[in-house]
Write a structure and sequence with these properties.
single chain, alpha/beta, TIM Barrel, two-stranded antiparallel ribbon, 16 helices, globular, binds coproporphyrinogen I
Length: 349
Protein backbone atom coordinates (compact mmCIF):
# COMPACT_ATOMS: atom_id res chain seq x y z
CA UNK A 1 0.00 0.00 0.00
CA UNK A 2 1.48 3.30 -1.06
CA UNK A 3 1.78 6.13 1.46
CA UNK A 4 1.15 9.81 0.91
CA UNK A 5 3.92 10.65 3.37
CA UNK A 6 7.26 11.47 1.76
CA UNK A 7 9.04 10.01 4.79
CA UNK A 8 7.44 6.59 4.34
CA UNK A 9 7.85 6.76 0.55
CA UNK A 10 11.57 7.57 0.84
CA UNK A 11 12.08 4.63 3.21
CA UNK A 12 10.57 2.42 0.49
CA UNK A 13 12.78 4.10 -2.10
CA UNK A 14 9.73 5.49 -3.94
CA UNK A 15 9.68 8.96 -5.55
CA UNK A 16 8.96 11.90 -3.22
CA UNK A 17 7.59 15.43 -3.67
CA UNK A 18 10.42 16.80 -1.51
CA UNK A 19 13.27 15.25 0.47
CA UNK A 20 11.93 14.26 3.91
CA UNK A 21 13.79 15.31 7.03
CA UNK A 22 13.54 14.66 10.76
CA UNK A 23 16.28 14.79 13.40
CA UNK A 24 17.31 12.33 16.07
CA UNK A 25 16.61 14.00 19.45
CA UNK A 26 14.43 16.57 17.75
CA UNK A 27 12.62 16.77 21.07
CA UNK A 28 14.90 17.71 23.90
CA UNK A 29 16.87 20.22 25.85
CA UNK A 30 17.75 22.61 23.00
CA UNK A 31 14.05 23.60 22.92
CA UNK A 32 13.00 26.13 25.59
CA UNK A 33 9.47 24.66 25.61
CA UNK A 34 10.98 21.25 26.45
CA UNK A 35 13.03 22.67 29.32
CA UNK A 36 9.98 24.50 30.67
CA UNK A 37 7.75 21.42 30.61
CA UNK A 38 10.47 19.24 32.10
CA UNK A 39 10.90 21.64 34.99
CA UNK A 40 7.16 21.90 35.49
CA UNK A 41 6.78 18.10 35.42
CA UNK A 42 9.62 17.54 37.87
CA UNK A 43 12.16 15.68 35.76
CA UNK A 44 12.89 13.51 32.75
CA UNK A 45 11.12 10.41 34.07
CA UNK A 46 8.02 12.49 34.80
CA UNK A 47 7.93 13.43 31.13
CA UNK A 48 8.62 9.91 29.97
CA UNK A 49 6.10 8.04 32.09
CA UNK A 50 3.23 10.50 31.79
CA UNK A 51 1.57 9.98 28.37
CA UNK A 52 0.13 13.52 28.19
CA UNK A 53 3.56 15.03 28.86
CA UNK A 54 5.29 12.59 26.51
CA UNK A 55 2.75 13.42 23.81
CA UNK A 56 3.30 17.14 24.29
CA UNK A 57 7.09 16.74 24.03
CA UNK A 58 6.72 14.57 20.91
CA UNK A 59 4.68 17.31 19.24
CA UNK A 60 6.83 20.30 20.29
CA UNK A 61 9.39 20.01 17.45
CA UNK A 62 6.80 19.24 14.76
CA UNK A 63 4.83 22.35 15.73
CA UNK A 64 7.88 24.54 15.52
CA UNK A 65 9.50 23.09 12.38
CA UNK A 66 8.28 21.70 9.06
CA UNK A 67 9.53 18.19 9.87
CA UNK A 68 8.36 15.13 7.94
CA UNK A 69 7.99 12.75 10.87
CA UNK A 70 7.43 12.78 14.60
CA UNK A 71 9.38 10.41 16.83
CA UNK A 72 7.81 9.00 19.95
CA UNK A 73 9.18 10.63 23.07
CA UNK A 74 10.40 7.68 25.11
CA UNK A 75 13.80 6.16 25.77
CA UNK A 76 15.60 2.98 24.79
CA UNK A 77 16.05 2.17 28.48
CA UNK A 78 12.32 1.59 29.05
CA UNK A 79 12.74 -2.16 28.42
CA UNK A 80 15.48 -2.78 31.02
CA UNK A 81 13.44 -0.59 33.39
CA UNK A 82 10.40 -2.82 32.78
CA UNK A 83 12.63 -5.85 33.48
CA UNK A 84 13.08 -4.46 36.98
CA UNK A 85 16.48 -2.72 36.81
CA UNK A 86 15.09 0.57 38.10
CA UNK A 87 15.82 3.46 35.76
CA UNK A 88 16.91 6.67 37.43
CA UNK A 89 17.88 9.94 35.90
CA UNK A 90 20.44 12.06 37.65
CA UNK A 91 20.81 15.64 36.39
CA UNK A 92 24.23 16.12 34.86
CA UNK A 93 24.98 12.37 34.88
CA UNK A 94 22.30 11.00 32.59
CA UNK A 95 20.44 7.72 32.96
CA UNK A 96 21.51 4.93 35.28
CA UNK A 97 20.06 1.76 36.75
CA UNK A 98 19.64 0.97 40.43
CA UNK A 99 20.68 -2.62 39.66
CA UNK A 100 23.17 -3.97 37.15
CA UNK A 101 23.67 -7.51 35.85
CA UNK A 102 26.89 -9.40 36.45
CA UNK A 103 25.90 -13.07 36.68
CA UNK A 104 24.26 -15.62 34.41
CA UNK A 105 21.75 -16.51 37.12
CA UNK A 106 20.64 -12.85 37.35
CA UNK A 107 20.29 -12.63 33.57
CA UNK A 108 18.32 -15.89 33.40
CA UNK A 109 15.95 -14.67 36.10
CA UNK A 110 14.99 -11.48 34.23
CA UNK A 111 11.36 -11.38 33.11
CA UNK A 112 10.39 -10.63 29.50
CA UNK A 113 8.06 -7.64 29.96
CA UNK A 114 4.56 -7.65 28.50
CA UNK A 115 4.26 -4.27 26.76
CA UNK A 116 0.48 -4.13 27.34
CA UNK A 117 0.95 -4.03 31.09
CA UNK A 118 4.58 -3.21 31.83
CA UNK A 119 5.01 -0.53 29.14
CA UNK A 120 1.43 0.66 28.92
CA UNK A 121 2.56 4.28 29.36
CA UNK A 122 4.50 4.08 26.07
CA UNK A 123 1.59 2.53 24.18
CA UNK A 124 -0.77 5.16 25.61
CA UNK A 125 1.61 7.86 24.37
CA UNK A 126 1.64 6.29 20.88
CA UNK A 127 -2.17 6.26 20.84
CA UNK A 128 -2.54 9.86 22.01
CA UNK A 129 0.12 11.15 19.59
CA UNK A 130 -1.43 9.25 16.68
CA UNK A 131 -4.80 10.81 17.50
CA UNK A 132 -3.31 14.29 17.74
CA UNK A 133 -1.37 13.94 14.50
CA UNK A 134 -4.54 12.72 12.80
CA UNK A 135 -2.68 11.44 9.74
CA UNK A 136 -0.84 14.72 9.10
CA UNK A 137 2.56 13.19 9.91
CA UNK A 138 3.76 9.65 10.46
CA UNK A 139 4.98 8.65 13.92
CA UNK A 140 8.23 6.71 14.36
CA UNK A 141 8.21 4.07 17.08
CA UNK A 142 11.52 2.74 18.34
CA UNK A 143 13.51 0.50 20.62
CA UNK A 144 17.14 0.06 21.58
CA UNK A 145 19.22 -2.63 19.94
CA UNK A 146 19.89 -5.65 22.20
CA UNK A 147 23.65 -5.02 22.38
CA UNK A 148 23.22 -1.38 23.39
CA UNK A 149 20.66 -2.33 26.05
CA UNK A 150 22.90 -5.15 27.30
CA UNK A 151 25.81 -2.69 27.52
CA UNK A 152 23.79 -0.40 29.82
CA UNK A 153 22.53 -3.37 31.88
CA UNK A 154 26.03 -4.77 32.38
CA UNK A 155 27.59 -1.39 33.06
CA UNK A 156 24.91 -0.21 35.49
CA UNK A 157 25.87 3.43 35.78
CA UNK A 158 25.64 6.10 33.13
CA UNK A 159 28.45 8.33 32.05
CA UNK A 160 30.88 5.47 31.36
CA UNK A 161 30.98 6.16 27.64
CA UNK A 162 33.57 3.47 26.91
CA UNK A 163 31.57 0.76 28.71
CA UNK A 164 34.63 -1.00 30.19
CA UNK A 165 32.63 -3.57 32.16
CA UNK A 166 30.36 -4.49 29.28
CA UNK A 167 33.33 -4.92 26.96
CA UNK A 168 35.17 -7.06 29.49
CA UNK A 169 32.09 -9.32 29.63
CA UNK A 170 32.03 -9.60 25.82
CA UNK A 171 35.55 -10.99 25.98
CA UNK A 172 35.48 -13.03 29.18
CA UNK A 173 31.89 -14.26 29.28
CA UNK A 174 30.12 -13.77 25.93
CA UNK A 175 27.38 -16.22 26.96
CA UNK A 176 26.21 -13.64 29.51
CA UNK A 177 25.59 -11.19 26.66
CA UNK A 178 23.73 -13.96 24.81
CA UNK A 179 21.53 -14.77 27.79
CA UNK A 180 20.63 -11.09 27.98
CA UNK A 181 19.92 -11.07 24.23
CA UNK A 182 17.66 -14.11 24.67
CA UNK A 183 15.51 -11.91 26.94
CA UNK A 184 15.90 -8.64 25.07
CA UNK A 185 15.10 -9.99 21.59
CA UNK A 186 11.58 -11.29 22.41
CA UNK A 187 10.97 -8.23 24.62
CA UNK A 188 11.92 -5.91 21.76
CA UNK A 189 9.84 -7.80 19.20
CA UNK A 190 6.73 -7.59 21.42
CA UNK A 191 7.43 -3.91 22.17
CA UNK A 192 7.85 -2.89 18.52
CA UNK A 193 4.77 -4.86 17.43
CA UNK A 194 2.74 -3.25 20.22
CA UNK A 195 3.88 0.21 19.08
CA UNK A 196 2.93 -0.67 15.49
CA UNK A 197 -0.54 -1.81 16.61
CA UNK A 198 -0.96 1.37 18.64
CA UNK A 199 -0.29 3.52 15.57
CA UNK A 200 3.45 3.89 14.87
CA UNK A 201 4.01 3.94 11.09
CA UNK A 202 7.75 3.24 11.00
CA UNK A 203 10.00 1.40 13.45
CA UNK A 204 13.60 2.24 14.28
CA UNK A 205 16.22 0.30 16.21
CA UNK A 206 18.98 2.31 17.91
CA UNK A 207 22.16 0.25 18.24
CA UNK A 208 24.04 3.31 19.47
CA UNK A 209 27.05 1.50 20.93
CA UNK A 210 27.62 -0.92 18.01
CA UNK A 211 30.94 0.79 17.37
CA UNK A 212 32.43 -0.58 20.61
CA UNK A 213 32.67 -4.15 19.34
CA UNK A 214 35.37 -6.04 17.43
CA UNK A 215 34.11 -7.70 14.21
CA UNK A 216 33.39 -11.10 15.79
CA UNK A 217 31.48 -9.49 18.67
CA UNK A 218 29.60 -7.35 16.18
CA UNK A 219 28.39 -10.41 14.27
CA UNK A 220 27.43 -12.25 17.42
CA UNK A 221 25.90 -9.49 19.52
CA UNK A 222 24.65 -6.96 16.95
CA UNK A 223 23.93 -8.63 13.60
CA UNK A 224 22.42 -11.89 14.85
CA UNK A 225 19.91 -10.33 17.32
CA UNK A 226 18.95 -7.55 14.90
CA UNK A 227 18.32 -10.10 12.16
CA UNK A 228 16.02 -12.08 14.41
CA UNK A 229 14.08 -8.96 15.42
CA UNK A 230 13.66 -7.74 11.84
CA UNK A 231 12.63 -11.19 10.56
CA UNK A 232 9.97 -11.76 13.21
CA UNK A 233 8.61 -8.20 13.16
CA UNK A 234 8.38 -8.21 9.35
CA UNK A 235 6.52 -11.54 9.38
CA UNK A 236 3.76 -10.11 11.60
CA UNK A 237 0.69 -8.63 9.87
CA UNK A 238 0.77 -5.71 12.36
CA UNK A 239 4.10 -4.49 10.98
CA UNK A 240 4.37 -5.90 7.47
CA UNK A 241 3.84 -2.51 5.85
CA UNK A 242 5.76 -0.48 8.45
CA UNK A 243 9.27 0.33 7.24
CA UNK A 244 12.12 -0.47 9.61
CA UNK A 245 15.30 1.57 10.09
CA UNK A 246 18.47 0.14 11.64
CA UNK A 247 20.87 2.66 13.16
CA UNK A 248 24.15 1.06 14.22
CA UNK A 249 26.37 3.95 15.21
CA UNK A 250 30.06 3.56 14.50
CA UNK A 251 29.49 0.51 12.32
CA UNK A 252 30.01 2.01 8.86
CA UNK A 253 32.34 -0.82 7.84
CA UNK A 254 29.48 -3.30 8.41
CA UNK A 255 27.01 -1.52 6.12
CA UNK A 256 26.78 -4.41 3.64
CA UNK A 257 25.91 -6.91 6.38
CA UNK A 258 23.44 -4.53 8.05
CA UNK A 259 21.82 -3.78 4.69
CA UNK A 260 21.13 -7.48 4.19
CA UNK A 261 19.12 -8.02 7.39
CA UNK A 262 15.76 -7.23 5.80
CA UNK A 263 15.09 -3.70 7.05
CA UNK A 264 14.07 -1.06 4.51
CA UNK A 265 16.60 1.51 5.68
CA UNK A 266 19.88 2.08 7.48
CA UNK A 267 20.62 5.06 9.68
CA UNK A 268 24.13 6.32 8.96
CA UNK A 269 26.42 8.28 11.28
CA UNK A 270 28.53 11.21 10.04
CA UNK A 271 31.87 9.39 9.96
CA UNK A 272 31.13 7.66 6.66
CA UNK A 273 30.09 8.83 3.20
CA UNK A 274 26.50 8.12 2.11
CA UNK A 275 27.82 7.39 -1.39
CA UNK A 276 30.11 4.67 0.02
CA UNK A 277 27.27 3.15 2.04
CA UNK A 278 25.03 3.21 -1.03
CA UNK A 279 27.67 1.32 -2.98
CA UNK A 280 28.31 -1.13 -0.15
CA UNK A 281 24.60 -1.92 0.07
CA UNK A 282 24.16 -2.12 -3.75
CA UNK A 283 21.55 0.60 -3.48
CA UNK A 284 19.10 -1.97 -2.04
CA UNK A 285 18.12 -0.03 1.09
CA UNK A 286 17.16 3.55 1.85
CA UNK A 287 19.62 5.64 3.87
CA UNK A 288 18.86 8.03 6.71
CA UNK A 289 21.46 10.59 7.72
CA UNK A 290 24.10 11.80 8.08
CA UNK A 291 25.00 15.43 8.83
CA UNK A 292 27.57 15.90 11.59
CA UNK A 293 25.49 17.17 14.58
CA UNK A 294 28.20 19.78 15.21
CA UNK A 295 27.27 21.45 11.90
CA UNK A 296 24.27 22.87 13.80
CA UNK A 297 26.73 24.92 15.86
CA UNK A 298 28.24 26.58 12.79
CA UNK A 299 27.04 29.89 11.30
CA UNK A 300 23.96 29.51 9.14
CA UNK A 301 25.80 29.75 5.79
CA UNK A 302 28.21 26.99 6.76
CA UNK A 303 25.32 24.87 8.04
CA UNK A 304 23.41 25.28 4.76
CA UNK A 305 26.52 24.38 2.77
CA UNK A 306 27.04 21.27 4.94
CA UNK A 307 23.42 20.23 4.30
CA UNK A 308 23.93 20.57 0.54
CA UNK A 309 27.14 18.54 0.79
CA UNK A 310 25.30 15.62 2.45
CA UNK A 311 22.63 15.72 -0.26
CA UNK A 312 25.28 15.80 -3.00
CA UNK A 313 27.09 12.91 -1.34
CA UNK A 314 23.90 10.81 -1.41
CA UNK A 315 23.60 11.58 -5.10
CA UNK A 316 20.66 11.17 -7.46
CA UNK A 317 17.73 8.81 -7.02
CA UNK A 318 15.15 8.04 -4.35
CA UNK A 319 15.75 6.56 -0.92
CA UNK A 320 17.19 9.39 1.17
CA UNK A 321 15.75 10.58 4.47
CA UNK A 322 17.75 13.56 5.67
CA UNK A 323 18.84 13.40 9.31
CA UNK A 324 21.84 14.05 11.50
CA UNK A 325 24.43 11.34 12.05
CA UNK A 326 23.45 11.38 15.75
CA UNK A 327 21.23 13.45 18.03
CA UNK A 328 20.72 17.23 18.31
CA UNK A 329 22.86 18.47 21.20
CA UNK A 330 21.46 20.72 23.97
CA UNK A 331 23.61 23.72 22.92
CA UNK A 332 21.95 24.11 19.49
CA UNK A 333 20.07 27.31 18.63
CA UNK A 334 16.57 26.22 17.49
CA UNK A 335 16.77 28.69 14.60
CA UNK A 336 19.53 26.59 13.08
CA UNK A 337 17.20 23.59 13.00
CA UNK A 338 14.70 25.72 11.08
CA UNK A 339 17.42 26.69 8.58
CA UNK A 340 18.44 23.05 8.17
CA UNK A 341 14.87 21.94 7.42
CA UNK A 342 14.43 24.82 4.98
CA UNK A 343 17.64 23.95 3.13
CA UNK A 344 16.72 20.25 2.84
CA UNK A 345 13.26 21.02 1.49
CA UNK A 346 14.64 23.54 -0.98
CA UNK A 347 17.04 21.03 -2.51
CA UNK A 348 16.05 19.23 -5.71
CA UNK A 349 14.87 15.62 -5.37
O1 LIG B 1 15.97 16.14 29.65
C1 LIG B 1 16.98 15.43 29.54
O2 LIG B 1 18.11 15.78 29.91
C2 LIG B 1 16.81 14.08 28.97
C3 LIG B 1 17.65 13.80 27.78
C4 LIG B 1 17.02 12.64 27.06
C5 LIG B 1 16.09 12.72 26.02
C6 LIG B 1 15.54 13.95 25.37
C7 LIG B 1 17.22 11.27 27.36
C8 LIG B 1 18.05 10.68 28.41
N1 LIG B 1 16.41 10.53 26.51
C9 LIG B 1 15.72 11.37 25.68
C10 LIG B 1 14.73 10.97 24.69
C11 LIG B 1 15.12 9.97 23.70
N2 LIG B 1 16.07 8.97 23.87
C12 LIG B 1 14.52 9.79 22.43
C13 LIG B 1 13.31 10.62 22.02
C14 LIG B 1 13.00 10.98 20.72
C15 LIG B 1 13.89 11.96 20.00
O3 LIG B 1 14.84 11.54 19.36
O4 LIG B 1 13.51 13.16 19.98
C16 LIG B 1 15.18 8.73 21.82
C17 LIG B 1 14.94 8.17 20.43
C18 LIG B 1 16.13 8.23 22.73
C19 LIG B 1 16.98 7.06 22.49
C20 LIG B 1 18.18 6.85 23.33
N3 LIG B 1 18.31 6.97 24.69
C21 LIG B 1 19.40 6.39 22.83
C22 LIG B 1 19.63 6.04 21.39
C23 LIG B 1 19.91 7.23 20.56
C24 LIG B 1 21.23 7.87 20.85
O5 LIG B 1 21.20 9.02 21.29
O6 LIG B 1 22.24 7.21 20.59
C25 LIG B 1 20.30 6.25 23.90
C26 LIG B 1 21.74 5.79 23.84
C27 LIG B 1 19.59 6.62 25.06
C28 LIG B 1 20.10 6.60 26.45
C29 LIG B 1 20.00 7.95 27.02
N4 LIG B 1 18.86 8.49 27.48
C30 LIG B 1 19.08 9.79 27.89
C31 LIG B 1 20.46 10.07 27.67
C32 LIG B 1 21.14 11.35 28.02
C33 LIG B 1 21.02 8.93 27.09
C34 LIG B 1 22.46 8.74 26.65
C35 LIG B 1 23.27 8.38 27.84
C36 LIG B 1 24.65 7.94 27.47
O7 LIG B 1 25.31 8.67 26.71
O8 LIG B 1 25.07 6.88 27.96
Amino acid sequence: MSSRHDFIRALRREPVTRRPVWLMRQAGRYLPEYRALRQHAGGFLDLLKNPDNACEVTLQPVRRFDLDAAILFADILTIPDAMGLGLEFVAGRGPLFRRSISRLTEARALPVPDPQTDLAYVLDTVKIVTQELDGRLPLIGFAGGPWTLAAYMLEGGGGAREFPRARAVVNAQPELVEVLAAKLVPATIAYLLAQARAGAEALMLFESWAGLLAPEGFRRHVLAPLEEIVTVVKADPAAQDKPMILFAKGAGQHAAALGGLGAEALGVDWTVSLADVRRATNNHVALQGNLDPAALLAPEDALRAAVRAVIADFGPGPGHVFNLGHGVTPDVDPERVGALVDEVHGAPV
